[in-house]
Amino acid sequence: GGTPDLPKNVDWFKEKNGKSLSFIAQINFSELQNYKASQNLPKKGILYFFYSAEQEAWGFDPKDKDKFKVFYSKNIDNLENK
After folding, report:
1. Contact call for residues 71 and 24 (beta carbons, < 8 A)
2. Closest Cα to residue 38, out of 51, 29, 46, 50?
3. Could you give the CA distance from residue 11 to residue 32 in angstroms, rounded to a whole number?
4. How would you classify the pairing of strands 46-51 and 22-28?
5. How far apart are CA 75 and CA 72, in angstroms?
6. For residues 76 and 9, what is the distance between their CA atoms, to the nearest angstrom?
7. pLDDT tens sequence across 6-65
């Protein structure tokens, strides 16, 4: 939860009906470099997770593809807390 640090050129993710997706988490890969498991991950960038606030989709049905979003941004220089 909370607010993500998204690149300035990225708008908040929404469902087809216009409802905003809820922010779940972000992983900043540059903060993981001290862990052995990070060897298989990108050295920098942020991975973001968003999901429908109504939590009505399980992700099994292709028609639900607008109910969640996983987004990776390699650019971490121009972030904005949204």
Report:
1. no
2. 29
3. 26
4. antiparallel
5. 9
6. 12
7. 999 999 999 999 999 999 999 999 999 888 877 889 999 999 999 998 777 676 778 888
User: How far is 14 from 11, CA to CA, in rounded Å?
Assistant: 9
Distance of CA 39 to the CA centre of its chain: 21
Q: What are the beta bridge partners of residue 46?
A: 28, 73
Q: What is the pTM for the complete model shown?
A: 0.84
Question: What Rg value do the Cα atoms of the chain yield, rounded?
Answer: 14
> What is the C-alpha separation between 32 and 58, in angstroms, rounded?
29
CA pair distance 7, 37, nearest whole angstrom: 26
Output the CA torsion 73→75→79→82 (10° steps): -10
H or E element in which residue 26 lies: strand 22-28
What are the two backbone dihedrals, phi and then psi, of residue 13, each rounded to the nearest 5 degrees? -80, 140
